Amino acid sequence: MKKTRLWITLPLLILAVIWSFKALMPSDSNTSINELYGFSTDRALKHVKEISRKPHAVGFPAHKEVREYIVSELEAMGLEVSLQQGYTAGDWANYSKAINIVSRIKGSGDGKALLLLSHYDSNPHSSLGASDAGSGVATILEGIRAFLEKQITPKNDIIILITDAEELGLNGADLFANRHPWTSDVGLILNFEARGSGGPSYMFMETNRGNEKLLKEFVRAKPTFPVTNSLAYSIYKLLPNDTDLTVFREDQDIEGFNFAFIDDHYDYHSVRDSYERLDRNSLTHQGSYLMPLLLHFSETDLGQLKSLNDEVYFNIPVFELVNYPFDWIWPMWFLAVGIFLVLLFLGLKNKTLSAKGILKGFIPVLASLLINGSIGYYIWGLLTAVYPEYKDILHGFPYNGHTYILAFVFLSLAVCFWMYRLVKSIALADLLIAPALIWLVICWAVAQYLPGASFFVIPLYALLASLLVMLYQKEPDPLLMWFLALPAVFIYAPFIAMFPVALGLKMMVTATAFTTLGFWLLAPLTARYTGKKILGTLSFLGCLAALIIAHFQSDFSPEKAKPTSLVYILDTDEKEARWATYEHELSNWTSTTLGKEKVRPDQMNNILYSKYGSRITYSSKAPLKSIPGPVVTIENDTTFDQKRILEIGIFPQRTVNRLDVYTDKTPVSEASVNGIELSEYYLKQRGTRLFTHYISDNDSTMLKLSIPAGAELKLTLYEASNDLLEHPLMEIPPRPEDNIPMPFVLNDAIITKKTIRH
Predict the structure, then answer these.
(1) CB-side exposure of 330: number of CA atoms within 13 Å?
(2) What share of the chain has pLDDT > 70, as a percent?
(3) Between 9 and 338, residue with greater pLDDT
(4) Which residue of 184, 307, 314, 404 shows the fewest CB atoms closer than 10 Å?
(5) Could you give the 3-state DSSP secondary structure of residue 615?
(6) Cα(673)–Cα(683) distance, rounded to whole angstroms?
(7) How far is 730 from 264, CA to CA, in rounded Å?
């Protein structure tokens, strides 16, 4: 009977893993958001469809069309809409014009206002921006419609801000945060974003102090599908992935919440970020956050949300959001240490534990961690060696990325089962000491260095409870052990997929490590299963099956298209032209243009900034075309107080989208672009790149520089237009259906290079 109950726990564990994912977000059948709040995903989707018809980056023709559509939708709701226009360079020296869309719903009180935030520009040059951030704009438009339909007057004003130029350097947010009079009225921000086209929407708080009051008000608002944890935000703060909300927090000490879905990462910033590929459930999930929070925070005193105290928090099925103070972190750890030592003493005293068995129990634990950690660490390098075309998916998450995650989870399980089979003669209680001790060390480390992850101690308590039972019961009830395993399943299973999805398969080590660490916590069950060799073999066969499936999914197709790149670079000084690409594995389309004489360049290897530091991989000689470069004039050259002040005018002679300016090693102490100062901090830590001007209306660029007196300055200008495929002089064939423009790099561009020495 007990064997039957033991084997019943295996499918129950699988069901618990499935539940841990299914509980994260609404399903197609869930209509509660509409029934409770009147939020219609179908209506929101209509907005996404209109917004994402064409690429609409700053300076692109559709950019104005999208802005006018959003304005008309807000005005149709009876709202007064204004446009805030201005220029900014942000923190990254990306200068551009920004046109923000601003509206306000007047409240009955005089307290701080609630700001709803998203952005309407898409990423240059090919992204359709359905998810990033058409979904955010659509969520706000539909949420405001549903709110106004209730005909209730909020206590707090509600400001609607749809920013511009977010993709260029958070420029629209910078413009509003630092120059709009309403900024001083804002008490809290809800920002809606996306970094993929599907999956659950994660909540990330942005605070300058503690999160206690923000978190407690979030819980009081009762969102139905909260997906968040304090570890994710701790890691988020360490990564260079700022949002519009970051500008408000850093510049004006205004805090708030980000909501973003990050799965189907392969669509991020690409032409495949489309209406058709947006996960409808992800959009519903955004609405499930907005509506309860809008109702709650429109009535809450937003001037009383700052706190010095932090809380640990995580979501879990049934209990939804669990939180407790940082003050509990060390007492909880010391309590776990105390329980462990007491159980160790009692086990050795009554001889249910043996020193020899405990030492042998470290063998499967350390061996499985070493093997699986090594597999996860090196696997992306191996995959890109076998499938070099994956290198052209610059964010490192290929279309079959989920299949690879599944494959290496299976492989990690196989290794764990096989390692535990080697020590089958050891008492089960002895086998639990090593994982308990290592988890104690892990919990100490996170409490010391990453306190947001301190909820890791919760599954450890469940493991210690299992150890207590095993010290006094030779064959404890398997269903009880399954119940005690649930905290580990519910907390860690989502992490297995979350990190490689968010950070790319180069972080597969997180999936293999979390699988291994989770397996240890399930040892009260997994170590009891007979036939570990068979289970390991079945897991290994699962890995092979997933790898075979991934192999057959590795080919590109119209739905899973290969990113390709091509640019034409004309050196107007040397009268030389070259084709260039960022592709590692050349497509037929690119090869046709490059020809057989392609080389790996040295000179142009690092000419332009890109998000992932991509370098030109191949170039070849190109025919000279009559492409005019900019006209450059020296407007002023004076020396004062040991400084040489240069004022330079750069005037485009064709329709262009972008100007990149680089310098030699001459130090630049001050710089401004069209009167906008570049930050002193940026100038001190920059490399050779001085700034990028994302051009609207074919604007000219007036540059003012301060360099040491007597110094000579060398400027290199790269002026680009994204019209390579349409330009009548180029005659480039259309891209095949199974190719798309490569995101994250300057692409489909005609670039002129000009050098100035003065």
Answers:
(1) 3
(2) 98
(3) 338
(4) 184
(5) coil
(6) 13
(7) 35
Distances (CA, A) of 417 to 125, 292, 370, 426, 518: 49, 45, 14, 15, 13
Rg (CA), the chain: 29
Which segments of 195-302 are extended strands (E)? 198-206, 256-263
**Token pair for residue 371?**
């093997």
Please name the residues in contact with 180: beta carbons below 8 A apart, sequence gap of 6 or more: 84, 100, 102
Spatial contact of 683 and 706, defined as CB atoms under 8 Å apart: no
3-state secondary structure of 50: helix
2: confidence class by pLDDT, cuts 50, 70, 90: low
Q: Rounded to an integer, what distance in angstroms lies between the CA atom of residue 567 and that of residue 581? A: 6
Distances from the Cα of 581 to the Cαs of 564, 623, 660, 746, in angstroms? 8, 16, 18, 10
The pLDDT of 561-590, averaged and rounded, is: 95
> For residue 67, what are the CA distances in angstroms to 72, 98, 137, 162, 163?
9, 11, 11, 9, 10
Return the H-helix or E-strand segment holding 339: helix 329-349
CB-based contact 573:753 (threshold 8 Å): yes
Give the Cα separation of 304 and 309 in Å (integer). 13
Residue type, 189: I
Q: Do 626 and 652 contact (CB within 8 A), yes or no?
A: no
Tokens in use for 466?
């299992």
C-alpha–C-alpha distance, residues 581 and 647, integer Å: 34
Between CA 562 and CA 556 the distance in angstroms is: 6
Going 531 to 534 to 538 to 543, the CA torsion angle's sign is positive
CB atoms < 10 A from the CB of 664, how many?
13
Residue 680 vs residues 75, 253, 669, 690, 717: alpha-carbon distances, Å: 41, 21, 7, 12, 22
**DSSP conformational letter for 527:** T
Question: Residue 183 CB: number of other CB atoms within 10 A?
Answer: 18
Contacting residues for 214 by C-beta, under 8 A, at least 6 apart: 205, 207, 255, 257, 305, 307
Tens digit of pLDDT for each residue in 212-267? 999 999 999 999 999 999 987 777 767 666 899 999 999 999 999 999 999 999 99
- Dist CA 586 CA 592 (whole Å): 10
Q: Which amino acid is at 113?
A: A
C-alpha span between 408 and 410 (Å, rounded):
5
Quote the pLDDT of residue 605: 52
| 122 DSSP 8-state letter | P
By CB atoms closer than 10 A (0-12, 13-18, 19+), residue 54 is middle
Question: Is 515 buried (19+), middle (13-18) or exposed (0-12) by CB count in 10 A?
Answer: buried
Q: φ, ψ for residue 276 (rounded to 5)?
A: -65, -30
pTM: 0.94
